[in-house]
Amino acid sequence: KCAHLRLACQTDPKPCYTSKLWWCGILLLGLGEVGNFTAYGFAPAALVAPLGCVSVIGSAFISGLFLKETMRAADILGGTLAVVGTYLLVTFTPNVPQEITAKKVQNYLVSWPFVIYVIIEIITFCILLYFYKRKAVKHIVVLLMLVALLASLMVIAVKAVAGMITHSVKGKMQLAYPVFYIMCILMAATCAFQVK
Length: 196
Description:
Elements: H1 2-8, H2 20-42, H3 45-66, H4 73-92, H5 102-109, H6 112-133, H7 140-169, H8 178-195
Helix pairs in contact: 2-7, 3-4, 6-7, 7-8
Family: Belongs to the NIPA family.
GO molecular function: magnesium ion transmembrane transporter activity
Keywords: Membrane, Transmembrane, Transmembrane helix
């Protein structure tokens, strides 16, 4: 954002991709996501996923400090709730190391709890999408719920892919199983639809 603001202040604005600051920001974002993906291979998803809110809190602090954006009471309340929620999840999540193999992923995908979860998620997503597209309900809560539903599937896919890659690097090849590629497609699709 800083690069965009600097470019907008110029009398002859150039495209953002000509700025070194913009490329530095993109590189740092990419490295952060690679680190986040790697963390899913070594730690439980219940620990890694909530820690993503730390980056949101950091961004809010940095934007106030460097970009002179004002912090509203709702921002402070939301940040506080995110930090408290992260603390509670990290503190009370059982620390049970579990290796993710392709066979375990296949078994989880056909288990009744997961099938019921996916059915409920698809129905909820379709209802929300109907209200958003057909009834023009553009409320932020509807958008956030749509993205959150996709994000929950993305976390499952990322955990499966990262776990299978980690297991493969340790010497037990998991990349020959079709479920690895199914999870890669699910990961890419949910990520693309969240962006859209």
